[in-house]
TrEMBL record:
Name listed for the protein in its UniProt record: L-ribulose-5-phosphate 4-epimerase
Species for this entry: Mucilaginibacter polytrichastri
SMART domains documented for this protein: Aldolase_II
GO BP terms, alphabetized: pentose catabolic process
Record keywords: Carbohydrate metabolism, Isomerase, Metal-binding, Zinc
EC number per UniProt: 5.1.3.4
Amino acid sequence: MSKYHHIKQIAYEANMQLPKLGLVLFTFGNVSTADRELGVFAIKPSGVPYKDLTPEKMVIVNFDGEVIEGTLRPSSDTLTHAVLYKHWEAINGIVHTHSTYATAWAQSQRDIPIFGTTHADHLTTDVPCAPPMSDELIEGNYEYQTGFQILNHFQENGLDYKEVEMILVGSHAPFTWGKTADKAVYNSAVLEAVAQMAYLTEQINPSAPRLKDALVNKHYQRKHGPDSYYGQ
Ligand SMILES: [Zn+2]
């Protein structure tokens, strides 16, 4: 058995969650999961329908984007995953989807405002939207540069990738991440729900107020404060 079997199995199971959660159509979307000791991640192969996926079909890639093991071509977004793993050492799972509502906000090139406590339970800032890629970056190594577009947006806006585990890439779609592949998938589903709620909120009341600071702070402290009581 391959010494990478454990991450292939995790990546397979996490990828299979995407259609179940209604986050992907056809072959859209991909999940990867890293093994930091081995210095590699397992990612979905490119263009294989979910029903035909198996753990063995997952492709093993290093953090420079080089294929280490596998016969199929890795997801076309592999270099974006590689860049994020290389620079953000605390993450072990990454998800990319074109889920409908999150993608609609990305195409609108807008941050998703923090309107309510559902959002605040997961992150206490707006969901950031990075600007669309410049022509120069698109014509260069596009997927590789998408990774840097994400890193740069976090750096320029003083965001912490451990606090904000999601981003919209303008004109494209969301990426989410987490300590595990499961957490990254969970974040993708949460992002889609929050994106839908924010869309409906603006439909019902175009001048709906953002969540007030007292509630933002309360939710932040619930998770992070000395008296945190969120979760087990
Ligand atoms: Zn995409």
